Amino acid sequence: MRKLSIAFAIAVVAAVMLTPGIALANFAIHGGYSMDTDACAGCHRAHTAASPITWTNSANEQRSALLISTADEVYEFCLTCHGSAAAGAATNVVDGVYESDEWGDLGAPLNSGLFDLNNEHGVGDSKHSVAGSWPAWGGGPDGGPFPFSTGAGPAIPMSCTSCHDVHGSSNYRILKDVVNGVRVGGYDELVPGEFTPTPYVISNETNYPAGGWLLHEPGAAQMNDYEPNYTTPQYAKAPGGDANKGISNWCAACHTQYVVESGTTNVGVYDADGYKVRTIDPAGAYDAADGFGMVTRHRHPVNVPMSNYLGPRPLIGNPGVPLATDGGVVGSDSWVDCLTCHVAHGSAVTMEGYANVWNSTDPEPDSGNGGVDPTQSNALLRLDNRGVCQECHNK
Fold first, then answer.
1. What does the pLDDT look like over 54-81, one tens digit per residue?
2. I need a surface site. Which of 4, 96, 284, 342 has the fewest CB within 10 A?
3. Which residues contact residue 383 at a Cβ distance below 8 angstroms, ignoring those fewer than 6 apart?
4. If pLDDT is split at 50, 70 and 90, which confidence band does 1 have?
5. Which one, of 11, 80, 6, lies nearest residue 43 by Cα?
6. Residue pair 351/340 in contact by the 8 Å Cβ criterion
7. Rounded mean pLDDT, 237-264
8. How many Cα atoms within 13 Å fall on the side-chain side of residue 158?
């Protein structure tokens, strides 16, 4: 027994020593590297890598990612640190809880939600997939009308790296600068050899660099007194209040239609650098297989100030959903964006009643399963049923 205790103690010490001292997005293992960094060795082996995971180069060739692991899928490798029983990071994305009290509340839900890979939290769990190829709801095809009867676009390969750049990006939480071929962040070379961040997604966290994260700079130089918070949403409006940026337009790299209030958004145009450019067909119509046929679809506005509401009561009650703000102060100029109503990774809230209808054109409560079975999906919403609506509209 004593030998086992000693062995266990040695293993724990080794695990602690191998855990990065500053395991924050854009720093340590994930970016902000110095020229003499040793962080590369935390994930890669130059000559003896065992993992079969690959990446695609500019010639569309599959090359080894040289990862330390025998993982077959990217998410398996990421869960080495971010999984339920992993010691490498406090952000447990499977259960959706924060396992520290340094940059959030110990045991509190993560801002991003939970992946719940084993579906242990309920039959209605909904999540972004971490493996395979899936269509995005509201995702239009390249260069044409929207012909899909399912309401979803072409299949998109999905993994953790579909959304996150493990080596750092200009955006909040290392959200990628190019998603699904659409530029949603990055760096402008305004001066030769000097690259200026142009993020779409920023944060109101203490001392967050509103201008975005620098490229190829030592992490400590950017750290200053930055204080991330993984359990209290502190979402900011788009840099400079640009309504064509922000998390909503970042998400629209795949969910192409959801940033316009009506009609169809396509991504059939390419800019000079080869990135897709969203174009809008305001008269667009499609059949979403919901019983209404080929009609123009209308959507909740995003990235607009709440002051555009005219009514007898303010549109801001005591919202339990996060609004995008300037400097963290909620007011009439706050924005509703995707993360106001939805979480990014997954949700275990309940959908029932009017969500469970057989015929959308005759919405009798609990009459059967509609186009989206509420026992199988909850649309990644933050609150049960449509509680996210009541939080702001307070009817």
1. 998 889 899 999 999 999 999 999 999 9
2. 4
3. 320, 321, 349, 391
4. very low
5. 80
6. no
7. 90
8. 15
